[in-house]
Amino acid sequence: MTIFKKLAGRAFRRSVWVYHCNSGACNGCDIEILNILTPYYDVERFGIRLVGSPRQADAILLSGAVTRPTLPLVKKAYQAVPAPKLVFAIGSCAIGGGCWYDTYNVTGGGEKAIPVHYFIPGCPPRPEAIIYGVALALGLVDKKVAPVELKQMEFPVDMYRRAKLFEVNNVIYKLLGEEEDRLEFGRK
Amino acid sequence: MSRGEELVRWLEKELGGNFISAEATIPGRLFIDLKREALSAAAAGLMNRGARYQVGVGYDARKSGQGFGLVHTFAFDKDSLLVALRTFAPGDDPEFDSLTPLIPGAGWSEREYQDLLGLKFRDHPNPRRLVLSDDWPEGIYPLRREVPHDLMPPAAEEVAFRLDEAPPGTSIVPFGPFHASLHEPAHFSVYVDGEDIKGCEYRGFMTHRGIEKLAQTELTYNDVPFVAERICGICGSVHSVNYAQAVEAAAGLRIPRRAEFIRMVALELERLHSHLLWLGVAGHLIGFDTVFMQAWRIREKIMWLAERLTGNRKTYGMVIIGGVRRDINQDRSEDIRAVLKEVEREMLALEKAILKDRTIHRRTRGVGYLSREEAVKWNLIGPVARARGVDIDARRDHPYAAYDEVQFEVPLADSGDVWGTLVVRVKEVYEAIKIINQCLDKLEKLPKNQPLAVDLEGPIPSGRQGLSLVEAPRGEAVHYVLTGEDNRPERWRVRAPTYPNLQAVPSMLLNNKLADFPIIVGSIDPCISCTDRVLVVERSSGKAKLLSRQELENLSRGKRSKK
Fold this sequence. Notes:
The structure holds two protein chains of two kinds.
Chain A: H1 2-11, E1 17-22, H2 28-35, E2 49-51, E3 59-63, H3 71-80, E4 86-90, H4 91-96, E5 118-120, H5 127-137, H6 151-176, H7 179-187
Parallel strand pairs in A: 1-2, 1-3, 3-4, 4-5
Chain B: H1 3-15, E1 19-23, E2 29-34, H2 39-48, E3 52-61, E4 67-76, E5 81-89, E6 95-97, H3 107-116, E7 120-122, E8 171-175, E9 187-193, E10 196-203, H4 211-217, H5 224-229, H6 236-251, H7 257-285, H8 289-310, E11 319-320, E12 323-324, H9 330-355, H10 358-364, H11 372-377, H12 382-386, H13 394-397, H14 418-445, E13 465-472, E14 475-483, E15 489-495, H15 498-503, H16 505-509, H17 517-523, H18 528-533, H19 549-562
Parallel strand pairs in B: 2-5, 6-7
Antiparallel strand pairs in B: 1-2, 3-4, 4-5, 8-9, 9-10, 11-12, 13-14, 14-15
Helix pairs in contact in B: 1-2, 6-7, 7-8, 7-14, 7-17, 8-9, 9-14
């Protein structure tokens, strides 16, 4: 992943133009993609622009479950994008086919058609999520995930143990009738 | 004597032995069973009495020994009456009379069942594939009972669209399937002579996801509203409310008053954001991006409001059968009022800027003209029809939920062009704000802490029909439900508003400039996902040409003489 990130950082150092490819979506994700251009979200400040042709684009924003008729079209659009290129699957449908993943007219997600590099979940994803996903790919922001050392986890585990102890002691002290000492012990 | 009784009497007299039965399930609905020989005579009679054709519904009833069923629904807008004519054909001879020579708007419905159910239509003027793809094998009809919902015949490689040749003297300009001005996959092959559009062939149904098949085989009654919402990311509530109303009508369920008002608030919020969305997109299509930015800036407040009310910006998930899932309490209702006040203020400023802008006037006036007669002939609905002076609105003509308790106006325009649709939509924004405020007033007066949904008393009996209308932002959406066994509908048919409107686009395009193509198609606010998904199968087939060259010429002459 780091190598990929470095490569992406180098390849997409300048403004990234994205092509919106609707492969049979319900408009939900498409409208949110358009929404990121509007004044409140304004992705052009990151140099991201929607373009009308795949040949001008660096990245594809794929929405929809890739229906049977659009499958060859999506492949063609992907081939038309000059390398290096990124593909974002936006919304539940593009990720895995959504709630109609196995019907007779649905191929079942963007990965069945073209290689997908990033998945942005949601039904539909919020505009913030789309911007965050694209910015993450471009190295503009860091991943919002706890570090691998699980530092975050140590604290809650400890809290949990103490709470459990408190609960157990509560019962014991109640049985023994020593209410005062219970609080003392619990604080340890 | 009401209109319904009069119709039944007339049909009994006219059809004699071919008339089987008539049933008025709830006020304003009339379900008539006929023998199939009498179908076109009955339909012609209804049309002569001022009916408006809505949709055809075909279904597979071979399990119960009835063969294939075909339902055509008609609306009498002045009398608040919906009439459904149902006929059956035996399973080994599924042939019906085609209504298309009589009613051009029935053409797509019939071709759909030709593809999906293998029905045959006698004398259909254009019996080519519509929904299924060219590489879909002959003889497999996905909507038939024996075909599983996940059947996937292997795709044939490199299937080309079977589009027609351009008429002599013209050349083809392709728009789509992926085009910057169409946000959804659809293919228009436009015939141009120089800059002038001389015709157009449409190939769609690329967004078809087989939702109706899913509902008949996999889902249960209460699952469907959530899938129905995902028919369309813009007007999702329309479909879930509409489906729930159709099932409630079939089951004879009366939902709490409070739930009706909450549904109305959800529907009108959707209309608000949809019209602002359209306004922005229309501005974008004519190259006026300021309108796009400003309209969407105003719209964003509504999206945030929707998120606070329902938990999601779209696909609200509010509706279940028998009521709604979330309440609108005092705090939220104050929140809504505050947002609406702000939206109205900003909208007034935007309206002033738009309606007096010369650029917009020049790009929209006289563009995409269609006369009132044509609009009626093609059964246009929604703002597209109202811009042509056709005074229809399902909220007023066929009141559902609690629309009979609120006051609102139906804006009309008579210019018959894109400008008219723009004016109508801008005015409807204020009407929607008015309706929401009235709903909130009523909600505040209704008793609180009442249940928001009623439960079904036992399973819904099978074989009952329900028909429901909801005025979506783009026009009236029709849902037909036939209840079935196993706690799921036997047949659920969705007719989205774009379905009839799109069929008239070639007429609107005729003799316009090529540069106006995006705004003319945009003026019907096409929601291709609604239109396609609904029914059944496959990639759009190659041929969906709507008018022949000769027909187009006749139309254009007619248009000129009318002008």
